[in-house]
Design a protein that fits this description.
Elements lengths: L17 E3 L9 E5 L1 H6 L4 H13 L10 E3 L3 E3 L2 E3 L7 E8 L5 E7 L14 E2 H16 L6 E13 L3 E11 L5 H8 L4 H15 L9 H22 L2 E2 L21 E2 L23 H20 L3 H30 L10 H14 L4 H11 L6 H5 L8 H12 L6 H9 L9 H14 L3 H10 L30
Antiparallel strand pairs: 1-3, 2-9, 4-5, 6-7, 7-10, 8-10, 9-10, 11-12
Helix pairs in contact: 3-14, 3-15, 4-5, 4-7, 5-7, 6-7, 6-8, 7-8, 9-12, 10-13, 14-15
Length: about 500
């Protein structure tokens, strides 16, 4: 059996959608991490890939049936439009069809220069590769739609950034790598035929229920907006900050993509920013819904010629779809936060105010976001755990009034306390990729070629909703001096 059987639908699109280019071989590849469960889920020959992974996942050995391409796209980067970006250090090897019929891309990141590299070297350092592996797999374990990590290899070659760093290549699996910026690339060139071909491809691949509808291109905007609204609501539910929500980093499939300067919030503050390049806080935690809507508006703009032949009518229809984004987000966010607070299925008028009061309490008391919800899950089982939750606040006494309101609200729910606590623990993780733990693992790998902390972190994050007493330190927020205040893109 071949390790990977490819069926490359994107490579069958017109040649202006991509450039054909092969990975540049590396000196001494070493397989650092192979995601065997994911390989089996995809129907791949895991034994062969584990045996030959260094060569395959470095790009040194091209498998039969692969058609390596670098995809064309444009994008708004921090609000400024760049008409030509493209895969400057990533090469799509091809696509596989899983046993369940779902199609998945397999892409190498850091595999060498492409025609889209501009002045870049097309390579990646070990730190960003391991960060993407950790965070993408953690997001999957948290139940959030995301691209996945299939493998990480070191190259045996240095890369030159501010310092000299060990090189590495990341193998990413995605429902597709089509972005809002892919549509923008053709719109910037006035190429309506290519926009139509791309939209039809996306509908066929991701939204087949829209095929044949007269207004399918308008419905495509609606469908992408729905998935993005739901996705961002779930990001906020775990304190995730993407860091670079440019239009070239928004996948139309509805998956989280491109884990550059991403981070997870410790102390709750909607203004939280970690990315070193986000000087104005455009992509702060609390701004992500608005940016999602802004990005959907950019997608809608590219589809105007397909939405209606009359420009004014097309704009009106697209505006309606874009406006609905925030309503959708609010619905999804309310569902996420109500579940996290254990409020049950039946919504009451006071729930919104109770939610706002809780978040205000966390903000005013400088409480840890993740631990606060986890300890509240324990408190749901009985008042004996109230003190544990209150101890997270700067002034523990301030918890009393809100807890009283919360318990009064819960008293009207038919569920037993233990049932409620179990359900809350299933949506309130004990473990997230704490930034200081991620950086600790990356530093050990970069400086000492020690991957033990990376392995341990991956093991813990694979079971985020379970109490793991042996790894209690991984659930704790950083101590003074351990805080990570900035994260970096790594390109």
């Amino acid at each position: 059996m071949a390790p990977i059987i490819f069926d490359n639908s994107y490579a069958r699109l017109p040649e202006n959608f991509f450039t054909r280019t092969e990975p540049t071989p590396v000196a001494a590849p070493r397989l650092v991490k192979f995601n065997r469960p994911l390989a089996l889920e995809m129907g791949l020959d895991a034994d062969a890939l584990e045996r030959d992974g260094a060569a395959v996942f470095s790009g040194n050995r091209l498998l039969a049936g692969s058609e390596p391409i670098a995809m064309a796209y444009a994008g708004h980067q921090f609000g400024q439009f760049v008409p030509q970006l493209g895969d400057g250090r990533a090469i799509l090897l091809g696509e596989v069809v899983r046993p369940d019929g779902a199609r998945r891309d397999i892409q190498l990141k850091g595999s060498g220069q492409t025609p889209w590299s501009r002045r870049g070297d097309g390579r990646a350092a070990i730190g960003p590769v391991l960060r993407e592996y950790i965070v993408s797999e953690a997001m999957h374990a948290l139940g959030i739609p995301t691209t996945r990590a299939l493998a990480a290899v070191t190259t045996g070659q240095p890369v030159y950034r501010e310092t000299i760093l060990p090189g590495a290549i990341f193998t990413r699996v995605a429902a597709s790598h089509i972005r809002v910026g892919t549509f923008q690339y053709f719109a910037a060139r006035g190429d309506t035929d290519s926009i139509r071909a791309l939209a039809d491809h996306v509908i066929d691949r991701h939204y087949p229920e829209l095929a044949g509808a007269d207004d399918r291109y308008l419905k495509l905007v609606d469908a992408v907006a729905e998935r993005q609204a739901r996705l961002i609501a779930r990001w906020l539910g775990v304190g995730f900050i993407h860091g670079v929500m440019n239009t070239d980093n928004m996948a139309v499939s509805g998956e989280t993509i491109d884990f550059g300067p991403c981070a997870f919030m410790d102390t709750y503050d909607p203004r939280t920013v970690f990315s070193s390049i986000d000087q104005m806080g455009r992509y702060a935690y609390g701004n992500q819904p608005m940016i999602g809507q802004w990005n959907i508006a950019r997608l809608a703009e590219t589809l105007l010629p397909l939405i209606h032949e009359t420009p004014g009518e097309a704009v009106d229809l697209a505006n309606d779809a874009v406006t609905r984004f925030m309503e959708r987000f609010q619905e999804h966010w309310k569902a996420v936060i109500r579940a996290k607070l254990g409020l049950g299925v039946q919504e009451e008028d006071e729930d919104t105010d109770l939610i706002r009061a809780f978040l205000a309490l966390l903000y005013e008391q400088k409480a840890d976001f993740t631990l606060s919800f986890r300890r509240l899950s324990d408190a749901a089982a009985g008042e004996g755990a109230d003190a544990t939750f209150a101890s997270l606040l700067a002034d523990p006494q301030s918890a009393g009034p809100w807890l009283s309101r919360w318990r009064q609200r819960l008293s009207r729910d038919e569920r037993l306390p233990d049932q409620r606590a179990t359900m809350m623990r299933a949506v309130n993780p004990a473990f997230i990729p704490r930034n200081h733990k991620v950086e600790e693992a990356l530093a050990a790998a970069t400086e000492n070629q020690d991957f033990s902390l990376f392995e341990a972190l991956n093991d813990v994050l694979a079971r985020p909703f379970e109490d793991q007493p042996a790894f209690a330190s991984y659930a704790e927020p950083p101590k003074p001096g351990e805080e990570v205040l900035q994260t970096f893109c790594g390109t």
